[in-house]
Amino acid sequence: MPAIECRSLTKYYGDVRGIEDVSFAVEDGEVFGFLGPNGAGKTTAIRTLLGLLSPTSGGAALLGHDATDPGDSRAARERIGYLPGDPGLDADRTAEAFLDHQAALRGAGSREALVARFGLDESRRIGDLSRGNRQKVALVAAFMHDPDLLLLDEPTSGLDPLLQEEFAALVRERVDDGASVLLSSHVLGEVAALCDRVGVLREGRLAAVETVEDLRSRGGKQVRVRVAEDVSRADFEVRGAMNLRVGETVSFTWTGGYDALIDLLDRFTVRDLEVVDAPLEEAFMTFYDGDVPGPGSRGRARGARGTRETGRTEESAPATGTDAAGGDR
Amino acid sequence: MSDRPAPWLAIARYEAAGRARGSVVLTGLLSGFLLLFLAFFPSISSAGIDLDAYVESFPPAFQEAFGIISISTIEGFLAVEFYQFAWLLLVGLYLAYLSGGTIAGDVASGRMDLTLSAPVARRDVVFGRFLGLVPLVLLLNVVLPVVAYVGVFAVGETIAAERLVAVHALAVPYHLCCIALGIAVSTLVSRAGVAQRVALGGLFALFMFESLAASSEYDRAGAISPTAHYDPSAVLVNAEYDAVGAAILLAATATLVALAALWFRRADLAG
């Protein structure tokens, strides 16, 4: 029995499309990632699965329970942890009072351990907490009843890198204990690090579902080679080599097989060779027409998160952009 | 799950606890307001003006709106100056306003997403949010009769304790109905601020309609307003206790909460 089974799920807000004909399954013990820019339908999909929105058509099952039936989905929600993208917490209550309430609604076997792990000061008013600390409160609420299925919408937004690591470790522990996870993100690295498979959402539709491994292999290999001979561009302008740069070191993205690469290099005396997976961003270019998933181009003004996201996009997008241009030269 | 409270009870407790300080402050303010008016009474009653003749000259609709039967006795004075105005109108409107923001506010802030991702039925939320405001109503109607009794005594008058108890006991169904009205609006209108104003404005419109209808040939139509079924003047001045009115208000309360649960069950939560 899959943890999530989504069958042609469609949600329109009046005439506005939220998601359309989204079908996928998250297997037991799997970490599945929703990847897409803001407005692609990630949050709509998750909220429809939770029954917060009723689907226009199609259906879904969570942990074997019909997600569109209020009574049946309630049984599923006993074992679900949810982290909203923008958690609505009570600013004027303390973290302790809020978590007490959440515990009364869902149970809280691991609350103390989680609070200690994330170093959360429960005595403070939620309104006085920083964005990262508020996110910790929401994380504790999502994980504290040891759910079998975790729905995490942009889980690491607002967390500093150290806490992102801690969060990733927590997810892996829960998965080792048998939990299944659906997480959404517009940050490719996060998805790649945690997920087994990735569903790419684009304008409300599931454009592709791929394993992270496939994506990596499709992204090709990044080759850096230093040879004894003097070389010119023409020596490496062969089929399968892209984004070629020739200098002291020759670097290119290799999309062909290993044998062909060895044949190519056989003509030279190789002094140094490095072959690594190409960045996942390149694999995703195919889905986004060169627009790497991320809010940089579309922009979402949400304070600290916006700044951070822009920073990330700058790291990846121009790099691939330059390479692509270089390949044409 | 056995050691967990019922979801509606957990929600009611949480909301009531969050409102505890505000409830105490409101009770204190209204107590002060009551005592202030009572302090005026000795000078008004000893001024030798025939106040009853004065108020009888008011238009019938105005007399009806403010339940003016008599104003020269302590009972009539309290009824007109405090209960008819503060208890019926002010507190009623405030409760409708407050409850109008509950469900709609939770949906708008995203709090509802977290609540409903737990094994909680939507009707649990409606019922819990309603119950969460009940302690405020009870606090007001338990503390204020004591304050009124002591206050009346302090200005050298006496009042039948039974009438004071009755005017507050009968206020409870009325106040509950105001909350239920707000909750129902809150499930229909998605924006919290709008829901609050619709609830408040709706109750005020009903009050105005009832007041005007009472002095017209359509006086029976005024019964649609909750304010028609709670008459502090009749209780305080004439010792008339309208048990039927209270029963109607309780039935209306139950109906409104049930309708709210029904509407909310089908609602999309526009996050």
Automatic annotation (TrEMBL), chain A:
PROSITE patterns the UniProt entry points to: ABC_TRANSPORTER_2
Compositional bias annotation for Low complexity: 316-329
An example molecular function term from Gene Ontology annotations: ATP binding
CDD domains the record matches: ABC_DR_subfamily_A
Domain ABC transporter: 4-228
Record bears the keyword Phosphoprotein: no
Domain of life of the source: Archaea
Family: Belongs to the ABC transporter superfamily.
Entry protein name: ABC transporter-like protein
Species assigned in the record: Halorubrum kocurii JCM 14978
UniProtKB/TrEMBL annotation, chain B:
Pfam families: ABC2_membrane_2 (PF12679)
Ranges that cross the membrane: 20-41, 85-109, 130-152, 164-186, 198-216, 243-264
GO cellular component, one term: plasma membrane
Domain of life (superkingdom): Archaea
GO MF: ABC-type transporter activity
Annotated keywords: Membrane, Transmembrane, Transmembrane helix
Protein name according to UniProt: ABC transporter permease
